[in-house]
Amino acid sequence: MKTVAVVLAAGSGSRMKSDVKKQYMEIGGKPLIYYSVKTFEESAVDDIVLVVSRGDVDYVKKDIVEKYGFDKVTAVVEGGLARYHSVRLGLQAAAHDCDYAFIHDGARPFINREIIMRAFSAVKQYKACVVGMPAKDTIKIADDKGFADSTPDRDRMWVIQTPQVFSYNMILDLYKRLDREEGDLMAKGINITDDAMVVEYYTDTKVKLVEGSYDNIKITTPEDIAVAEAILKRGRE
Fold first, then answer.
1. CATH for the stretch 3-236
2. What's the whole-number mean pLDDT along residues 29-35?
3. Given 66, 109, 173, 200, which residue has the most CB atoms within 10 angstroms?
4. Strand-pair partners of 151
5. pLDDT at 18
6. 107 near 219, Cβ under 8 Å?
7. Are strands 47-52 and 3-9 parallel, antiparallel or unpaired?
8. What average pLDDT does the segment 111-140 reach?
9. DSSP category for residue 156
């Protein structure tokens, strides 16, 4: 069974308020994207496709892939306008004999091999799975005026992370369909925010929830850098 990891690093990182894109900001002396790519490099995943910002392909090939000796990276491609465009482009750049695709945010540096193996085991059984963790906090559903409308049962709430893992042919076909029908979805006000939503919207396939880690955070704001440094330091002690 051949697997590919599509690592997304095409975001602008505008909330970082930095001249350096967040995927290249350093933690522990290495660029952020280094950590997730290294984990996939050392895992059972066969190939890695990096999806980067426009104009960054040569930089990533030289200063990330070649510099750190990531032999499993088979392609570095430019992303699109939105996340789901980038995912489709990454999937299309993968070898077409793939069986399963891991889709991962490059801004989540603390994925580990145990998470990858749990997700791989689940996807072989269910065809679609997403990594996440049970919510620690009570969740409120707001109305359109910003008032609390309802309170779902916290015991059933999960905070979704990545990787999200799917049968390769299924997820690629669904993203191609999404590309063709993008205008219709926008007209209906449907906003695709993660890969599982594509499966949920177009198919009856149930998406299995797989335990990730509370450390598997997404780096989005300057405050997250300090948290990431603390997690990294703790892991080295």
1. 3.90.550.10
2. 95
3. 109
4. none
5. 73
6. yes
7. parallel
8. 97
9. G
